[in-house]
Amino acid sequence: MIRVLGYNGRKVLGVTSNHMKIDFANLQYQYQLYKAEIDTAIHKVLDNSNYIMGSEVNELERNLQIFTGAKHAITCSSGTDALLLAMMALDIKPGDEIITTPFTFIATAETIKLMGAVPVFVDIDEKTYNIDSSKIEAKITEKTKAIIPVSLYGQPADMDTIVTITDRYNLKVIVDGAQSFGSTFNGITDSNLGDISTTSFFPAKPLGCFGDGGAVFTDDDTIAEKIRSLRVHGQSKRYHHKYIGMGGRMDTIQCAILDVKLKYYAQDLALRQEVAEKYTQTLQGRDLILPSIDSRATSAWAQYSIRIKNRDEVQAKLKERTIPTAIHYPIPLHMQECFSYLGYKQSNFPVTEKVCKEIISLPMNPYLSNDKIEYICKEGI
Ligand SMILES: Cc1ncc(COP(=O)(O)O)c(C=O)c1O
Hints:
Elements: E1 2-7, E2 10-15, H1 27-48, H2 55-68, E3 72-76, H3 79-89, E4 97-100, H4 107-114, E5 118-121, E6 144-148, H5 159-169, E7 172-176, E8 184-185, E9 188-189, E10 196-200, E11 214-218, H6 221-230, E12 235-237, E13 240-241, H7 252-263, H8 265-283, E14 297-298, E15 304-307, H9 311-320, H10 350-358, E16 359-362, H11 370-380
Parallel strand pairs: 4-5, 4-6, 6-7, 7-10
Antiparallel strand pairs: 1-2, 3-11, 8-9, 8-14, 10-11, 12-13, 15-16
Helix pairs in contact: 1-7, 2-7, 3-4, 3-6, 8-11
């Protein structure tokens, strides 16, 4: 039976049962919360049947612009395609080098390779798990064209140093904000931190649709116009193709769903922050490493990831108690088979390699109640 529970001032739907049922991202619950509005939005699209580039696409883009303050918000088919569109817009060519982190989801470096460019990895900072900005300059060569910092787990990288470096060497910055929509650095939203910023609306992301989706943000009118064209096969007008582009649009139905969820997103971010604080308060003093947020940043808390020496044992114990966890990420990108041609070796990036062995992500969603957080921390860890 689903009922509405009042919990710490938060509106929480609960399933009455003797078991402590814990969901990792709790997508079903979120749908139940906004069901009436989402169903209406979907049916409106079904009724007018404008499934591709319907008016809901423009409406969502306008609301994303307002939410982020970016001059241009361009929706696209996924966070992966958002990265591709960003690199295509910057005219990244075969042989160009792009500096990034080896501690991220494969898409960040996979898209660099798909462009024919070379991913050049830099180890991570031991506190934030983002690219170590003090090690970037040593990797810059004549061929370097751009840096792609990733805002891992929801927290932007050290953008002060990164932008100083890119200005000095005349490089471009593409922020991979797939996990960090709505986070900030020096009070600036993640979507405005690079020449181009990207995000993902994959269902489990902090702001997710009900399928694949993503967006590209920029203040540059020329880049924005090019990206809008690239996402429809480089078209300038119907059947006139200025660029080699791609089929990279976000479906109208997904835009309609996301537009409903965007209205509540500021509230979701505040709830995620509360959940993170409750975890930190409950786990403080234990023999483990808690997340560390830079004083200049706020996190979107895509994940609440801790480091613990006996990680695999802890994960097994949590599984026994049906508490879901995830490892983001067990194998660093420089050790992935698909990148063996780059010639990196074990021990090239010691911080990344250590963190990969110790990291574990605990259930994280805006609706995780305090008693569930206490149960996870007391029973499982
Ligand atoms: C850091 C990062 N970049 C890119 C992506 C790709 O996003 P999508 O799954 O929407 O293609 C993801 C998705 O998990 C991600 O975490």
